[in-house]
């Protein structure tokens, strides 16, 4: 699905699929769980298949 990313926090290890808009918010505001700042390398543009 285009615009989908897997976010994997390097600090708390939370892993969640997000869209492009949420990706931008996480880059601006930090991790959704621990609020640590994150860089673009915390996002995988190829969501894992279950």
Total DSSP E strands: 3
How do the helices and strands follow one another from N- to C-terminus?
Answer: EEHE
Q: Mean pLDDT, rounded to whole units?
A: 90
Shape: globular
Number of domains: 1
Give the class from helix and strand content and strand pairing: alpha+beta
Task: Note the gap between the termini.
Answer: 14 Å
Query: Strands of the biggest beta sheet: in what spatial order?
Result: 2-1-3
Provide a count of the helices.
1
Give the amount of beta strand, in percent.
Answer: 15-25%
Main sheet properties? 3 strands, antiparallel
Question: Unreliable segments (pLDDT under 50, ≥5 consecutive)?
Answer: none
Précis, in short:
The chain is α+β, with helices and mostly antiparallel strands and 50 residues long. It is 20% helix and 24% strand. It has one domain (4-44).
How does this model look, in words?
By secondary structure, the protein is an alpha+beta fold. It has one domain. Helices cover 20% and strands 24% of the residues. It contains one helix and three strands. A hairpin with a 6-residue loop joins strand 1 and strand 2 (15-19). It is globular and about 25 Å long. It starts with a strand and ends in a 6-residue tail after the last strand. The model has no long low-confidence stretch (mean pLDDT 90). This is Small CPxCG-related zinc finger protein. It holds the Pfam family DUF7560. It comes from Haloferax volcanii.
Primary descriptors:
50 residues, alpha+beta, globular, 3 strands, 24% strand
